[in-house]
Amino acid sequence: NITYLLFSAFSLFLVLVLFVTNKTLRNYVIKKLNYKIIVSFVNKIKGYSQTIIEIFQNKKFIAANLCLTLCRYFIGVYIIYLVFFLIGNPVNYWYIFIIQSLVILISTVPITNSGLGLKEGTAVFLFSLVGVPTSITFIVYLSFTLVTYFAGFIIFLVFRRENEPAKKEFP
């Protein structure tokens, strides 16, 4: 069931990317459907598709972005695995790997800011399906979220001070 869900989500994402980046496909769909809503949607994404095409032409940027994204993902999965282990309720690494993928995918739905609450609720539900107590999952994900936000806040403060413009003093 999880494999089917992952495959469906990935397929939907690929179709959306193909629609956004392929001008011929967009024009064909518009001619066939010819709805005002679709026409207004396509007009809004014209500049977006050009930007995506320009980004994909920079292979080094794509490779660096992919590498950093995968590193961030694997580090997050390992931290969650470690927290489950330290609490005394070890969970199979592959369960965490698959469930964290689904949590990240579901958290992109724009319901709350940064998927806050949605991530934790999804994780609690999915981990309960594999036999992890809901209270432990909630504690793990709440801790992970708080640590992530705290680290981001510290990094923000450090970079904000480095990039502050010089203050001008008036006589």
Amino-to-carboxy terminus distance: 71 Å
Provide the succession of SSEs: HHHHHHH
Number of beta strands? 0
Strand content: under 5%
Which residues sit in consecutive blocks of at least 5 with pLDDT less than 50?
none
Mean pLDDT: 81
Shape designation: globular
Q: If helices are DSSP runs of H or I spanning 4 or more residues, what is the number of helices?
A: 7
Q: Could you estimate the helical fraction of the residues in percent?
A: over 70%
Tell me briefly what this model is:
The chain is mainly alpha-helical. It contains 7 helices and no strands.
What do these coordinates show?
With 171 residues, this protein is mainly α. It contains seven helices and no strands. It has helices spanning 2-21, 23-33, 36-57, 59-87, 93-107, 118-129, 134-162. α4 crosses α5 (93-107), α5 (93-107) runs antiparallel to α6 (118-129) and α6 (118-129) packs antiparallel against α7 (134-162). The longest helix is centred in the middle third of the chain and has 29 residues, at 59-87. The N and C termini lie far apart (71 Å). The mean pLDDT is 81.
